[in-house]
Amino acid sequence: MSALVAKRTELKDALTAAGYFAFSTVPEIAQPPMVYVAPAEPYISLEGAAFGGVIVHHQIVVVAGPGVNEQRADELDGLVEGVLFVIADLVGLFEVGRPGSIELSGQAYIAVAITTQTEIQLEAS
Asked: Could you give the number of structural domains in the chain?
């Protein structure tokens, strides 16, 4: 398993073990509340990395259940706190964006992206 796959899998598996519906590839049926671990922009950079390392960036998208009311906003805040607790020891830095709305299968959900960066060592193939 490559170092990139290992880091993405580590994040997804830790979130799944903590009880979240977490995935790193888009499922056929997306059923919020859920957490999606995906590459961020830029995916890989050298800036700030030690010799021989790279910085890998992930975006963890946290989506609350159906609806856009205050109860869902409170749910999203709880989900974000829980996700941050799970990933705190797995990433170097993280930043939580501003919540917004996302549409899945014609239904509106509130969501927020957590951008992470972690230094890893790439492996020669």
From this structure: 1
Q: Other C-beta atoms within 10 Å of 23: how many?
A: 16
Percent of the chain with pLDDT over 90: 73
Residue 98: CATH number of its domain: 3.30.70.1700
What's the predicted TM-score (pTM) here? 0.91
Task: Give the range of the structural domain holding residue 43, as residue numbers without chain letter.
Answer: 3-121
**Tens-place pLDDT, residues 11-24:** 999 999 999 999 99
Contact 58, 45 (CB under 8 A): no
* Residue pair 24/7 in contact by the 8 Å Cβ criterion: no
Distance of CA 11 to the CA centre of its chain: 8
In sequence order, what DSSP letters do the residues of 106-125 get, joined into one string?
Answer: TEEEEEEEEEEEEEEE----
For residue 57, report the phi and psi dihedrals to the nearest 5 degrees: -110, 130
Which structure tokens are listed for 121? Answer: 């060592």
Which parts of the chain fold into alpha helices (H)? 3-17, 70-87
CA 85 to chain centre: 12
